[in-house]
Each structure stands twice: as C-alpha cells, then as structure tokens.
C-alpha cells in the first residue's frame, strides 16, 4: 500500500448481506475512499440470488455500467431479459430504466460503476445505511451510530443521510437526536415525511408528539 495508490482483491473485500435474496454488497468506494464516481461489487453464493437489486437511478440521475466479473447472470432491463455471462458489460444510460440481475451460476460477481454526467459525485446514502444496518443486526449500536455520524459530518445537510442517521438513532434509543435529525431531513426534503410515516424503524419514537409534527409536514 502507498499514499499514492492502493491494491485490493475483490474477494478480500467485506461481504455485507443486503435484503432477503442472497445479495452481498462488497464495498469498494468506501473501502478505497473513491471520490469522483461510485464503484462497488455485488455477489451471491447460489443460483437464483440477486447480484443487482431491483431499482432505478431516477432520484440520483446516475448512468451505470455493470461488468460481470465472474459467473453468469441474467439482467432484466425494464422487463427485457439480457443474458450476461462472465465478461459481459451492461451499460444503462437512462436512469429511469428499472434494472435487476439474478445469478445463473454459483459465486457470480458483478462490478458496478456509476455517476451523474457533468456533476461532482456525491455518495449514495444507502452505502453508509447498509453498513450501519448490518452493525445494528449484530448488536453493535455504537459502531452503527459512529458510521452514520461520520458520514453526516463528511456530507452535511444531505437529506437522505440525515434520514438514515435518524433511523439508526431511533433504533438505538436516542429519541431526541433522532427527532432532530429526522426533522432536518424532512425540512430539506419534505417528501421524506411520507416515508417516515410508514417506516417501522421509527416505531420507537412514533408516540412522540414531535414525530407527529414532523410527519404532518408532508405535502398533501
């Protein structure tokens, strides 16, 4: 390792379980501190597992390219099936395309790179949320809070990051801080009030009058 470059094997990266369909996130951008673009790897142990979860990039406006590094996957792009053995590149130019990919072979591994054309890159809020959620499931609340607060300090006033921080604070029993951060997130992005209203991670603070006030700010 050098202060000018770093080398890491894909199989040496952390493998963080995400969701219920076998998806494993292998953080690259966070691990290496990449700033100009988003880059991560995804894997699954068995056929039928996800290697790209179903989503669009409409909110972030990202173009994405997926590289099947190992194994074999089947992509669905707005419902159209695309066979993708190892060595296949799938470039999704339109952020609105609904995409997902399912493994055909054991130990399929996909690399994803993305960013918004013409704009400085900002990390997706799900990255820190995935790390923190995994830590919470292991009972490591202090570490989960530290991850989210470090992210919030690095990218202040990012509404999605504040929202995820509030989720972890609520789960960790930090009611007052959760309400403050949720309130700020909703102030910055009012639509988040609608999400908070049905988000079970806020069940511990749902009986607080301040929560009702925040959710009541949701536009009709």
Describe this structure in words.
There is one protein chain. This protein has two domains: 10-115, Sandwich (Jelly Rolls), CATH 2.60.120.10; 125-215, Serine Threonine Protein Phosphatase 5, Tetratricopeptide repeat (Alpha Horseshoe), CATH 1.25.40. Strand 1 (16-18) and strand 2 (23-27) form a beta hairpin. The model has no long low-confidence stretch (mean pLDDT 92). The longest helix has 14 residues, at 141-154. It has a six-stranded antiparallel sheet with strand order 1-2-3-10-5-8. A four-stranded antiparallel sheet has the order 4-9-6-7, with no helix packed on it. It has helices at residues 29-32, 125-137, 141-154, 159-171, 175-188, 192-198, 209-215, and strands spanning 16-18, 23-27, 38-44, 50-55, 63-70, 72-77, 80-85, 89-92, 99-103, 108-115. Helix content is 33%, strand content 26%. The chain is globular. It is of the alpha+beta class.
Question: What oligomeric state best describes the polypeptide chains here?
Answer: single chain
Q: Give the overall silhouette.
A: globular
Radius of gyration based on Cα positions: 18 Å
The CATH top-level class label of the largest domain: Mainly Beta
Helix content: 25-40%
Q: How many individual β-strands?
A: 10
Distance between the termini: 54 Å
- SS class: alpha+beta
The CATH architecture name of the largest domain reads Sandwich
Which ranges are low-confidence, i.e. pLDDT below 50, for 5 or more consecutive residues?
none
What's the total helix number? 7
- Supply the number of structural domains: 2
pLDDT average, as an integer? Answer: 92
Beta-strand portion reads 25-35%
- Largest sheet, described in full? 6 strands, antiparallel
For this structure, what is the CATH homologous superfamily of the largest domain? Jelly Rolls
């Amino acid at each position: 390792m050098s202060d000018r470059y770093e080398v890491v094997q894909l199989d040496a990266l952390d493998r963080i379980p995400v969701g219920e369909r076998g998806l494993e996130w292998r953080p690259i951008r966070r691990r290496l501190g990449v700033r100009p673009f988003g880059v991560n790897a995804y894997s699954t142990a068995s056929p039928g597992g996800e290697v790209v979860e179903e989503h669009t990039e409409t909110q972030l406006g990202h173009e994405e390219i997926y590289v099947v590094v190992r194994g074999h996957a089947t992509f669905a792009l707005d419902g159209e099936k695309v066979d993708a053995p190892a060595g296949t590149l799938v470039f999704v130019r339109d952020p609105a395309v609904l995409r997902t990919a399912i493994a055909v072979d054991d130990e399929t591994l996909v690399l994803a790179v993305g960013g918004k054309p013409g704009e400085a890159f900002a990390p997706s809020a799900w990255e820190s949320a995935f790390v923190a959620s995994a830590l919470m499931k292991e009972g490591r609340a202090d570490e989960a809070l530290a991850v989210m607060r470090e992210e919030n300090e690095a990218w202040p006033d990012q509404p999605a990051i504040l929202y995820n921080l509030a989720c972890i604070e609520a789960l960790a029993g930090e009611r007052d801080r959760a309400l403050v951060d949720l309130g700020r997130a909703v102030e910055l992005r009012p639509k988040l009030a609608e999400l908070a209203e049905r988000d079970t991670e806020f069940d511990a603070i749902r009986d607080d009058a301040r929560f009702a006030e925040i959710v009541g700010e949701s536009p009709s």
